[in-house]
Amino acid sequence: MILLTIPEFIGRFHPILVHLPIGILLLGCLFQLLTINPKFVFLRPAIPVICLLGALAAIFSSGSGYLLSESGDYDGELVDLHFWMGISVSIISVLLYLMYRKGVKELFLNLTSATLVILITLTGHYGGSLTHGSDYMTSALKGESTKVAIPPVPDVQKAIAYTHLVQPLLQNRCYSCHGSEKQKGKLRMDNISFMLKGGEDGASLVPGRANESELIKRMLLPITNDDHMPPKEKPQLTAEEISLLQWWINEGATADKKVADLKQPEEIKPVLMSFQTGAAVSKKKVAADIPEEEVGKADPAAIEQLKKAGVVVIPVLSNSNYLSASFVTAKADPEVLKLLDALKKQLIWLNLANSSVTDAGLAIVAKLENLRKINLSHTTITDKGLALLKGLPKLQVINLVGTKVTAQSIITQLKGLKELQHLYLYQTGVEQKDQAKLKSSFNKVSLDFGNYTLPILAQDTTVFK
Predict the structure, then answer these.
(1) CB neighbours of residue 260 within 10 Å
(2) Contact 263/251 with Cβ under 8 angstroms?
(3) Residue 269 or 224, more confident
(4) Where are the alpha helices (DSSP H) in 35-135?
(5) Is the bond preceding residue 154 a cis peptide, omega within 30 degrees?
(6) Is residue 385 within 8 Å of 358, Cβ to Cβ?
């Protein structure tokens, strides 16, 4: 835990204090300019008092602003410009007060008031640029939407992963706090080298190890956690966008490789395709992989029983009570599956791939009401077992690769799952003629039928016989 020094603590009052002199001084200048019209001459006695209060508030605001600038979280040049503009506002406001005390002519008072209004406007603009970025106003005039993180890519396989996918995402979700003009927590993210260097909490990027990268750890925290990034009041990344970042980091976090040159596990292929079709930039709200609400710890004795049976039970995040369970080294017998019932509040990911689970076993699994992901690939389940999954309303990802389930059963049994996002159907009982019907029935779900073909690149070795 990092404790603030007294100067840093005082500096953080700057955003609160800064609005006080702005309001007071603008009111005083308005009164002065209104007195050009004889009807408003009655306002004149109040103007010196207003200017004095505004001048004092401007001085305190400048002092707190200087202390805040010493934190090093902001671009030096822009901070200096904003700071000296603020000092100018303080000096001119004191000068305006003294001019009233000395009885200076109205013409000079009016000119000084107009100058002060211009200075306040410019100072406020540069302060806003420090907080929101220098293009905050111009991006709105250009019609740029802050909700669209990654513009659609015409041919995602030919795109450079960092330049066309990762960088636009970081620019629209992270640069406002971690860019060239502001570096919250001493972290700058507008260049891979800066991310490798990291900030106060160390490197935000660990190439090849997404789960050890602070960037991913923060994004996967519950939104109610103070360390969650982006902050909860900012636009959040979708599940697809986080998956993209995890994949890019695991593939080495390179700056110049094309998507086609990187390994593409089955689960990332539909995500990449969604950026090509524009589905990933739609305005619909995507349910989170990990629930936002907190949950209590699971029964340690129940976890220990499962581990003795060979089930791998681990937290989905190091600081989360939500769990994943994998039967990679365990038999999915009904007796073992029943042990999962004690974890039904915490268990959100279940991996039964290549296991001995049967349709009867799925009747037990169907009681795990919080499941988000289930992997049933290469198991003996049939349409009868598939019918049991419709009782799991929070399911987002279902992997049915290598099973005998049919298209009609998928449509009948899974159509009611409102949060379903991904269905993996390669090597199932789904025939090619059924694909169009499935796409029509699940038009908001990413369907993966496999059989991908990658383009042949110039650097590939081709053998002719």
Answers:
(1) 17
(2) yes
(3) 269
(4) 47-69, 76-102, 106-132
(5) no
(6) yes
Cβ contacts of 104-111, under 8 Å, gap ≥ 24: 106/35, 106/36, 109/32, 110/32, 110/33, 110/36
Whose structure tokens read 């049994």? 413
Which two structure tokens, joined as six digits, stand for 331? 């038999």
Report residue 252 CA to chain centroid gap.
21
- pLDDT tens digits for range 171-180: 888 887 777 7
CB under 8 Å to 138, separation ≥6 — which residues? none
pLDDT at 134 over 70: no
Residue type at position 113: S
Q: Which amino acid is at 338?
A: K
- The full set of domain ranges for the chain reads 6-141, 156-281, 307-448
User: Which residue type sits at 184?
Assistant: K
Q: How many CB atoms lie within 10 A of CB 441?
A: 15
Phi, psi of 300 (to 5 degrees): -60, -35
Superfamily of domain 307-448: Ribonuclease Inhibitor (3.80.10.10)
Choose among 69, 31, 60: nearest CA to 47. 31
- The neighbouring-strand residues paired with 182 are 74
| C-alpha to C-alpha distance for 320 and 224, rounded to whole angstroms | 12
Q: Where does residue 293 rank: exposed (0-12), middle (13-18), buried (19+ CB within 10 A)?
A: exposed
Secondary structure class of 84 (helix, strand, coil):
helix
Report the alpha-carbon distance of residue 347 to residue 326 in Å, rounded: 11
More reliable by pLDDT, 399 or 226: 399
Separation CA 313–CA 17 (nearest Å): 51
